[in-house]
What does this fold into?
Amino acid sequence: MRSSRSHGSRVLLALAVASLAPLLASASPALSKATKTPTPKKPHAVTGAIRDFHGFAGTLSATVNPDGLETVYYFEYGPTTSYGSKTLPVSIGSGYTPVKVSQPINGLLVGFHYRVIAVNKDGESIGKDEAIAEAKKRLRFAFAKSKSREHLTGYRGSYVLSGTLTGLGSANHAIELQAKAYPFNAGFVTVGPTTATTTTGSFAFQISQMTQSTEFRVVALGARQLNSPTVTVHVAVNVTIHVRSVSQAGLARVYGTVSPAVAGGVVIELLRPAKETGKREATGPKAVPVGATKLKRATVSLSRFSAVVGVPITGYYRVYVRLAKGGPLVSGYSRDILIRTHKPVKKKSKGKGKKKG
It folds into this structure.
């Protein structure tokens, strides 16, 4: 009895294995592919920039990928592309990832050429030739100075990021604009198509419909990419201001809107020029608060404010919306508006009649 049961079990097992055989056969290539070790091959070498070049000495740099075989690298350098001098070979192992390498060199001059060479048993890789340029001839970015300390635009406003690329090869050089939006924790992404500098090396990027503060940089494309310093363009809330007189002398109702709609708890201050002349000053007068109120959310897209404030003198006033630091938007001002004040007219007292004798 046991023998027949055992025989039946073996038959069922055989049938099960036979039914799974096609599935195992189709899966085996994928499994083998997933566990396959990369095939070793000749290295890959990229010549880098020269660092700390002063007088006759500097540090040559490069990036080398051994691609799985024991690899050595060295630099060639000299006054022409025939070079004539080279460093001693240095081993960097047999990994599969790029390795940044460098060697200090004495006896260098402006105009010297250099390149990196990497060698393993599968072959050699020769990096691109580079030349040592004078500091003033190296490519550098310079941005146009902003009128204020901050690069600023209004909500859904535009900003022109302009500047100049200087140095050897700066004219008609391929460049692109890259951006990183608030909260600035992601990587830079390219904005718009690749363009080029002018014949004088200048450039200008028109950035439209900005809705949050954003970091920008300009990238000079080529065999060795050059990134400009980062410029943060802040986006301020838009503030409108209106004024209406009230019956009581020395007071006025100031009201308006803020867009986009800002959460509660934001204080609006009314400001006036420190010099009580009633005239606008080209340099932007200092301001002092004369009143305050709170924002009230009106719609999805804007908030409103309204407050009766004292108007001590006739002059230009504005509203300042103060936001907490560290957000996608920054504080903003309204335009200046002229508010006239009037003092109550003193009524003359009527003379008392003479007493009749």
